[in-house]
Design a protein that fits this description.
Blueprint (H helix, E strand, L loop, with lengths): L6 H27 L3 H33 L5 H27 L3 H39 L1
Length: about 140
């Protein structure tokens, strides 16, 4: 059974996710787009703030549905979770990237596809690893 996360844990989960993503993405975005690290870092940070907010909202809703339906976090459930999370994020990030980079929505969407190709497996792996570590910590607390 899943124990409910506190708001503090949700914040920790989201911030850690975004810090790791920022450290991985900013240099790549800078190199691929041929923009300064500052410009790429600012875009990555803006996307990160949007994603962090969406992460907390989406995960709270998804976990509520998970508990209500009695789902187990199988590969299929994790896949649906990651796909829905990324679809919602695309709706927010594409206009932001288009505005920041002064490009069309179509071009920003193509750019975002590259980000999704990174973030889809990253999201699944991060959440899986987080759940494994969290379950171990919870077991130790129950044993103590």
């Amino acid at each position: 059974m899943l124990s409910q996360k506190t708001i503090y844990e949700r914040c920790f989960h989201a911030v850690l996710f975004e810090i790791l993503a920022l450290l991985l993405c900013a240099p790549v975005v800078s190199m691929v787009l041929g923009v300064s690290m500052t410009h790429a870092g600012a875009l990555t940070l803006m996307i990160s703030l949007v994603a962090m907010t969406w992460n907390m909202i989406f995960n709270a809703l998804f976990e509520r549905l998970e508990r209500k339906r009695g789902w187990t976090r199988t590969f299929a459930v994790r896949s649906v979770h990651a796909l829905l999370f990324e679809a919602g994020l695309i709706l927010a990030v594409v206009p932001l990237a288009a505005w920041w980079l002064d490009i069309s929505l179509v071009r920003a969407f193509v750019l975002d596809i590259g980000l999704v190709l990174f973030f889809l497996p990253y999201t699944m792996l991060y959440n899986w690893a987080y759940d494994v570590v969290r379950a171990g910590i919870m077991r130790k607390r129950l044993q103590a």
